[in-house]
Amino acid sequence: MKILLITKRVPFPPNSGYPIVVYNTIKGLLQLGADITLFSLNPTKGRIDIEDIYDPIFEQIKYHTYDLDTDVNVWSAFFNIFTNESYNVSRYYNEDAARQLENLLRENAFDIIQFEGLFVVPYLDVVKANSNAKLIYRAHNIEFTLWERLSHSEKFLIRRKYLAFLAQRLKAYETDQINRFHHIFAISEPDRQSILMFGCEIPMSVFPVAIDLEKYKVDKTKTSFPTLFHLGAMDWRPNQEGLEWFLDDIWPDIEKLNKDLRFYIAGKNMQKHFFEYDSENLIVEGEVFDAVEFMNSKAIMIVPLISGTGMRVKIIEGMAMKKCIIATTTAAEGINCRHGHDILIADSADEFYRSILQCIINPKRWVEIGENARKTVENDHGVHLISSKMLKIYEELVSA
Fold first, then answer.
1. For residues 346 and 352, what is the distance between their CA atoms, to the nearest angstrom?
2. Is the peptide bond before 252 cis (omega within 30 degrees of 0)?
């Protein structure tokens, strides 16, 4: 089975949501004998030097990358208003990248070509013109919903109007493209329902985030208590606004619960203003070298998202590490979890306060929830389980 994955960024190293999802897809399919080729855009922001990748998985695939400048330009954003294009999406299209992809398709025959997210869909016409492969679109989230939620929470009128405009353009683009593939992979059931509402008429399957459970080894002798932590990419706006809400409206009361309580904040691209919150009880670490080791050393994971779509990979990882996760309904969306069993749901300052208090005064509570969380991940998110089901759909498409 020859498979081409087209990605909006290089999924190495697997250090945040999107790369982890793609990386584990590659890993799982390789274990099942698939022949994998990767075509990745390599944007200026977060650019990866291919020469610096030392990973046995990378050594097993064929790869092609194109360096691309996707930075927001004020003038191009302004002139885009007078077109029919989505500015969010159009920044990822480049004629030279398209030609490189075209040459790859002319020189190779693929059974399956999988588009990893909306931002590589602009290359669909090139693929259709140069390949007879079966085409898969994997929706990592519902892009327009994210921007729509951001616009609703924006206080500055002009910016709120512009975010709503971007959301509208994204929705139109997603709706127009959705029926141009042979199959769609949604990352959660709520996302599948949203795609159906677009008027989707092609087959669709739900494939949640897959992780390699062997990587997530728990050593409770290294876990300090009472500790809270937040871990996530801090250049993603939903993470920023959610954490700001927690720090401003919730943490001041939480801090008074126990003089030994510590709250650790970590994540790549930590924004400067978060370091201003740093204190004796609140430690801002920035990017950590080993996210799994960082999670292992802390007890309770806080995920206060108030916008965003898709499935939070960091929650799945936290569950795999037997963490007690206290998260908003939005953060836990799409995960097969149950409040009070394998997660604690909190959507207000008072609910966060009561959940954290519950864990501090009854340590057995957070340990029990963490144990159940691990079982949930083992049942639903193992990389071999997900990859096997995915490969079966590929085989059905190719033999049809």
1. 5
2. no
Identify which of 71, 68, 89 has the alpha carbon closest to the alpha carbon of residue 80. Answer: 89
Q: Which two tokens stand for residue 15?
A: 């250090």
Looking at the DSSP bridge assignments, the partners of residue 108 are none
Task: Answer whether 394's CB lies under 8 Å from 112's CB.
Answer: yes
CA 296/CA 222 separation, integer angstroms = 7
Task: Count CB-CB contacts under 10 A for residue 232.
Answer: 25
Q: How many Cα atoms are found within 13 Å in the side-chain-facing hemisphere of 179?
A: 10
For the CA atoms of 22, 235, 307, 304, what is the dihedral angle to 10 degrees? 100
For residue 84, what pLDDT is reported?
A: 82
* 303-316 residue pLDDT tens: 999 887 777 999 99
Task: Give the pLDDT of residue 142.
Answer: 83
> Tokens representing 196?
């159906």
Q: What's the order of all strands across the beta sheet hosting 204-206? A: 62-68, 35-43, 2-7, 112-116, 134-139, 183-186, 204-206
DSSP secondary-structure letter at 81?
A: T
Q: Evaluate whether 230 touches 264 at the Cβ level (below 8 Å).
A: yes
- Looking only at the bridges linking them, the beta strands covering 262-266 and 300-303 are unpaired
How much is the average pLDDT of 158-186?
90
Read off the pTM.
0.91
CB 48 within 8 A of CB 22: no
Residue 146 has pLDDT above 80, yes or no: no
What sign does the CA torsion over 193, 121, 20, 103 have? positive
Domain 214-380, CATH: 3.40.50.2000
b/e sequence 281-296, b meaning 16+ C-beta within 10 Å:
bbebeeebeebeebbb
d(CA 353, CA 380): 30
What is the fold of 2-210+382-399?
Rossmann fold (3.40.50)
Taking alpha carbons only, the member of 306, 153, 332, 333 closest to residue 242 is 306
Domains 2-210+382-399 and 214-380 share a fold: yes
DSSP state of 49: -
For residue 55, which phi and psi values (nearest 5 degrees)?
Answer: -150, 130
Number of alpha helices (DSSP H) and beta strands (DSSP E) in the chain: 15, 13
Q: How far is CA 12 from CA 3, 46, 61, 65, 102, in A?
A: 18, 11, 12, 12, 24
Domain boundary assignment for the chain: 2-210+382-399, 214-380
